[in-house]
Write a structure and sequence with these properties.
- By secondary structure, the protein is α+β, with helices and mostly antiparallel strands.
- The chain has 2 domains: 2-30 and 132-168, no CATH class; 45-121 and 187-250, Immunoglobulins (Immunoglobulin-like), CATH 2.60.40.10.
- 40% of the residues lie in helices and 25% in strands.
- It is built from 10 helices and 10 strands.
- The protein has helices at residues 2-27, 62-69, 73-76, 122-125, 127-138, 147-153, 156-167, 171-185, 212-215, 242-250; strands at 45-49, 52-58, 82-93, 99-101, 107-109, 115-118, 192-193, 198-208, 220-227, 233-239.
- The strands form 2 sheets. Strands 4, 5, 6, 7, 9 and 10 form a 6-stranded antiparallel sheet that branches.
């Protein structure tokens, strides 16, 4: 009889441990963010030069950033020391010769054409997201040597709960990873464009907190398209009032 009761109590304890373990996992789970890919991006500025048409859209307002990337990229990673400013590019080659955008030529410039800051692709621009993931995962960790002590000092139920809280990533990590993936997947690809071909996507400016005041003097973004056959570089300049964007960051 006693043996039967002990087995029954053991089953109850095991069931409770399983339930609490599942609760620990589900309480730390956060659904992935699926940005709204149907968002219509306006080519607010358009320049057509040498049969190459380029349109850009600067995403700096909170609502559109949250709708397209899941978070306000300008402010979400301020604790990592950066603001992320995405700029959408639509490039079309209407000429007979192949061309390509020189991605490393995209930069903010001052009134005297001094380069102030370069744009990056999604792989570089997503680094603050992964830094935040690593930072969150390091919080609450306990040394491996202390695990045996926990096993001895805590009852099974408490031990299971502690493990769930300490070793399962925080909910925000799912969001940050999803944002990083979104930034990378929407990045403008480095490719050659032949006649009537198009290339669309984002390049990103990683704005360090320390450099924000310096960018107030920027009034334009400069880039170069290269004619692949002749190596000729075609300059494009787009007016961008960085002062207004910096002011929003300072609010």
């Amino acid at each position: 009889m006693n043996a039967m009761m002990r087995r029954k109590h053991s089953r109850i304890i095991i069931n409770i441990i399983i339930i609490i373990t599942l609760m620990a996992f589900t309480s730390c789970y956060s659904p992935r963010i699926y940005p709204d890919y149907s968002l219509e991006l306006n080519k607010i500025q358009n320049i057509n030069r040498n049969n190459v048409a380029i349109g850009i859209d600067v995403l700096s307002d909170k609502d559109r950033l949250e709708k397209y990337f899941g978070v306000d990229l300008l402010n979400e990673y301020a604790d990592q020391g950066y603001a992320i400013l995405p700029i959408y590019f639509s490039i079309e080659n209407n000429g007979d010769r192949p061309v390509t955008l020189l991605n490393d030529s995209v930069s903010f410039i001052s009134q005297d054409s001094t380069e102030l800051m370069k744009a990056y692709d999604g792989q570089v621009a997503s680094r603050p997201c992964y830094s935040k993931v690593a930072e969150r995962e390091s919080l609450g960790k306990i040394p491996n040597w202390s695990i045996p002590l926990l096993i001895l000092l805590l009852p099974p139920i408490g031990f299971t709960y502690v493990l769930g809280k300490l070793f399962i990533p925080a909910p925000a990590n799912h969001t940050d990873r999803s944002v990083a993936s979104s930034i990378h997947s929407k990045s403008l690809r480095d490719r050659s464009l032949y006649k009537n071909q198009k290339n669309n996507g984002f390049l990103y400016f990683l704005i360090p907190s320390a450099d924000m005041d310096k960018l107030r003097s920027s009034t334009a973004m400069r880039l170069y398209i290269k004619d692949i056959d002749t190596d000729e570089k075609i300059e494009f300049r787009f007016s961008i009032n960085m002062s207004n964007i910096i002011n929003r960051l300072a609010e």
